[in-house]
Design goal:
heterodimer, A: 114 residues, mainly beta, six-stranded mixed beta sheet, five-stranded antiparallel beta sheet, globular, B: 112 residues, seven-stranded mixed beta sheet, 54% strand
C-alpha cells in the first residue's frame, strides 16, 4: 500500500523559532526522498533532496531514518517568508513503471508570525 | 532552469463541454504527469507518460484522457466536464520517475 503521511498542522511559530516536521512512509523499498515547498495558490517547488547521511542547506536540515521509515525537515531561525506548506515526497517502487513513481504527502502547513 | 508551461492559469467551462489542458516542457524530460489538487486531499495523480504516445493511469483517471504526440507536450482532456472536476490542475515533468518533478504554474479550472 502506498502511503506518505504527514502532520497537517498548522504549525504556528514566532520568527526565529526552530521547527521540525516529520513524515512517515510505508514502502521500505523507497529510494528517493524530497521536501517540496508550496506557497498559497502556487505550484509545489523542490526545496531539497534528502540523502541517507542527512544534508543541510542553510537553515534547512533534512534527515532520513530508513529503519523507522521516516524523514524529517528542520528549519532553524524561522523567517516570515518560510510560511508555506511543506510536502514530503517519496519514491514508491511498484507504483507505475520499473523505477516507481513519486508519492506526495498532503503537506504540513507552517505559519511564521512576527 | 526547467520551464513547464501550462496553457491557462484560469479557465471556466460548462458542464458537458470537452476541455483541453495543455502542458509544454523545455528540458527534454522523458516523464510527464498530470495531477489535480483539492483542499484536504493533496496532490492526486491522474495520468502520466514515460514516452511519446505512451500513457499510464494514475490514481484517479476516470473522466480524463491524455495525449502525448510529442515529447515536450502532454495534454489532459476532460471528455465531458462535470462540476466535480472543478479543481487546480498541475502538470509536471521529470527526467526519471524517481527524480524530482518540476511543476507548471497550474490551471485553476471551474466547471459551471
Amino acid at each position: 500500500r502506498k502511503e506518505v503521511e504527514q502532520d497537517p498542522g498548522p504549525f504556528n511559530v514566532p520568527e526565529g523559532a526552530t521547527v521540525a516536521f516529520n513524515c512517515t512512509y510505508s514502502n521500505s523499498a523507497s529510494q528517493s526522498f524530497f521536501w517540496y515547498r508550496q506557497d498559497c495558490r502556487k505550484e509545489p517547488k523542490l526545496l531539497m533532496s534528502v540523502y541517507s547521511s542527512g544534508n543541510e542547506d542553510g537553515r534547512f536540515t533534512a534527515q532520513l531514518n530508513r529503519a523507522s521509515q521516516y524523514i524529517s525537515l528542520l528549519i532553524r531561525d524561522s523567517k516570515l517568508s518560510d510560511s508555506a506548506t511543506y510536502l514530503c515526497v517519496v519514491n514508491m517502487r511498484g507504483y507505475g513503471g520499473s523505477q516507481g513513481n513519486l508519492i506526495f504527502g498532503k503537506g504540513t502547513k507552517l505559519s511564521v508570525k512576527p | 532552469d526547467v520551464k513547464v508551461t501550462q496553457s491557462s492559469r484560469y479557465l471556466v467551462k460548462r458542464t458537458g463541454e470537452k476541455v483541453f489542458l495543455e502542458c509544454v516542457q523545455d528540458m527534454d524530460h522523458e516523464n510527464m504527469f498530470w495531477y489535480r489538487q483539492d483542499p484536504g486531499l493533496g496532490l492526486r495523480l491522474i495520468y502520466f507518460s514515460y514516452d511519446v504516445k505512451m500513457k499510464e493511469k494514475g490514481d484517479i483517471p476516470e473522466g480524463y484522457s491524455v495525449s502525448r504526440e510529442k515529447k515536450e507536450r502532454f495534454s489532459l482532456i476532460l471528455e465531458s466536464a462535470s462540476t466535480n472536476q472543478t479543481s487546480m490542475y498541475l502538470c509536471a515533468s521529470g527526467p526519471y520517475s524517481n527524480q524530482p518533478q518540476h511543476f507548471g504554474d497550474g490551471t485553476r479550472l471551474s466547471i459551471l
